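Weekly puzzle thread! Below is a chain. First person to post its structure in token form gets bragging rights.
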Amino acid sequence: MSRATTALACLISSVLLTLAAAAPAAAASPASEWDYVALGDSYSSGVGASGQTGVCLRSPNGYPGLWDKANDPASFRSVACSGATTDTLRSSQLSALNTGTDLVTVTIGGNDVGFASTIITCTLTSDSGCAAKVADGIKKLNEQMPAKFDATYREIRAKAPNATVIVLGYPMLFDEKAPSCGFAGMSIPKRKSLNAGAVELNKAIKAHAQAAGFRWSDVTDEFAGHGICGPSPWLHGLTVIPPTDSFHPTGTGYQSGYLPALNSVLG
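Winning reply:
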């Protein structure tokens, strides 16, 4: 073997060994051996599904619990909490992670940009008032959230250095074609404004998640055709009992929307 060939073989071996050492633990072992932690807000805690308990409204029928039931990992813990922001995630959820964590999932960011207040404003005000409120949220997204996303993802990686981290986005809430959206329902212009805001939020989350080396899971394809006001919604509209279910996925939304979106990036 020539010196050049020997050197090339050594270089290839070195690269392969480096890549093998850097591969996340979750990719190197079966799911039954993984230690899984779910972080995030109400879309991760399972608000909208049956079986919600506690102040964080966690449900075993949200997508983390469904994945746990389907895969029976070595351990599973959800610390996701309704109302969570990037700040509260960093202050109260990261202690669940450690060097042995293999898989982390998270949805976060919607509450930071005023998800609940925007929905309320759009329900009660005019089309132009709704558009202005969405614009305010996008302004905050552009000005304040880059640093918050980066800090959040950096701290997740520091606490779980060996984990595969999946960052999931948010669905488009509304069907934009239905002429009527029920009692106190959103007009078509309002629905378009809110969906446009979700597009911008997902774009920002994706960019910062991928920059952090995390995997991105876009749920919009799975929820396509299943928006509020449409013929087959997978999201709750305005809900009276319990009101917290409003504008969150149904059990079907988690089972047929979020769970397949998670599985698609885990391979």
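Puzzle host: Confirmed. Bonus trivia for everyone else. The beta strands are 35-40, 75-78, 103-107, 164-168, 215-217.
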